[in-house]
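Review form for a predicted model. The reviewer records the input and the model, then writes brief findings.
Reviewer: anonymous (R2)
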Amino acid sequence: MSGNPAVVMRLLASAYTVAEKAGAIVRRVLHSGELGVVEKTGANDLQTLADRLAQQSICASLSRRFPKVTIIAEEELPAEEVGEDLIETGQAEEILHKTCPAEYSTLKEEELVVWVDPLDGTKEYTEASRCLHHQIEAQIPHKCLDTSQPHSTALWLLDNVTVLIGIAYGGRAIAGVINQPFHNYQLGEGADLGRTIWGMLGLGTFGFQLQEVRGDKRIVTTTRSHSNKVVMDCVDAMEPHEVIRVGGAGNKIIQLVEGKASAYVFASLGCKKWDTCAPEAILHAVGGKLTDMHGNAYRYDANVKHMNSAGVLATLRNHEYYISRVPQSVLLALKSD
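Model under review:
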């Protein structure tokens, strides 16, 4: 490493290693079987021990190295001392060696806002845990699961789980890290689990192979557990050839950039800024777009409200087509900020 990397590059390099540590925490808690689940506002809004420990690790690690950066995280946790075992001090050398885009090279810590979702897809995480521990109790080899059984089919939900760390400047998502703790889980015992995707505007994206849906197929990815009539009316209005219902905003953006879906459509409340900051930065870095249902961009300033109150519409290409298809009834139901 030559010279002194820009603050934002050092922050991004730390976010990368911190996200990997958080992913390891998420895996460890799952395999322990002691999830410590609590309901925050209902059965579809859960918090686990993994959420709590991962957030403590991320926030304490980043704030120790970057004390002037504003960090906003999902979970409301009591102020307490964080053990040294949760602190990550490393930085990704790959990122430190990259050249910072000129427009961000002189940014100061106090100009940056970090949005953290320590475990995106908590509901899917808990369901997958029940599946995994049924398998263990029944002594079923991982690679020999009978996927016709309900307890076994839930294991694919591990794909939905991500750790999200987004970096914003001037209200705009400019960089992001997505860790998938269970990537490669289907390869069975001994597989190298997990991967980390990252990206930055003006620099590019790393950790995955960019692909698009082949042909003219419209494949819409949408919510698995927060659906309602407005959501489905909007999905149907897109005239999709296929609809995929999965959990996690991070997971849905990964589907877009890896060619599994052409649009992420969620015409409802529920998604928050910590859900979309990191994924939006990565999507925008490859030329995609994320807006509300009115086509307006979300802001990520430190003082904005956390709810994405006008829904989420994200695409890799042809964003204007999908915006044009949003029904008037949906626009009236979801007021833009």
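Findings: Residues 140 and 193 are 20 Å apart (CA to CA).
Further findings: Confidence is low (pLDDT under 50) at residues 136-152.
Recommendation: see findings above.
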